[in-house]
User: What shape does this take?
Amino acid sequence: MEVATLQNEIRKLLREKNAILIVHYYEREEIQEIADILGDSLALSIEAARTEADVIVFAGVHFMAESAAIVSPGKTVLLPRPEAGCPLADMITPEQLAEAKKEHPGAAVVAYVNSTAAIKAQSDICCTSSNAVKVVNSLTEIQEVLMIPDGNLARYTAGFTDKKIIPWSGYCPVHHFLTPEEVARTKALHPGAPFAAHPECRTEVLAMADFVGSTAGIVRFAAKSPAREIIFGTDEEVMVRLKKESPDKTFIPASGNLVCRTMKLTTLEDIRDSLREMKHVIRVPEEIRNPAKRALDRMLALS
Ligand code: 13P
Ligand code: SF4
Assistant: This one.
């Protein structure tokens, strides 16, 4: 079926069901085009908590839909492709976190939103890549912070706080495997182009960056920059938004491998079918939802 026909069908179903379509910047272009809300992880969790729609369709990965179900318990949250997960979120288990908490009894636990509901439920507060530094520095009585599950984000945050940061060993395979050599090669091909990187990249890559921020931060940086060419270190689909905001600039991915495969699983057909059949509903058991909501609400209160 034609893209425009499918897009129209989805828009009609969304109206009929009083539903909204929330879309992350890493999703396919044809899905971004029909989003009610398009953004980075922080913006999407704020909107999920705020919406008055009855149904939230999440074009993103599992933890994002789960977070929407946590903050909006009265709503039906649909994830069109339930197998669209985030490998980083699976890099810590509740048992491992319980052990780490025993080893660091005085530490607060800051959970990156790229984590499961069960992990959020055991954490003091959540953060995203937009607000990690602000969240950590908001813990005024605390000297030690266990930051899970992304080690790179934890190490990046450590540079902006006096607190002792204990990083977990997880990583995002898309960002972590971007190497300094690849960045150097791309820079050499585009001399003078600033490099904007996501904090999920490794420390050596971030050291080469002119700007470090979330996907929304990278979009804002690119729009403001006087440079005509900009190199970016995050999923290549962000280019859709970069081009829209700054059509006269050229954007260059720092490597050819910046693709989050699970973010690309969802298709327009999946979204249409999910609305037609009201599948796949994401539910979080109350005993996990309540403590997880506390950690998310605490973060949202700082936004
Ligand atoms: P942001 O949306 O916070 O930039 O995070 C990127 C990401 O990896 C989402 O999974
Ligand atoms: Fe997870 Fe990385 Fe994909 Fe984001 S880009 S969803 S952190 S695997």
About this structure: The mean pLDDT is 97.
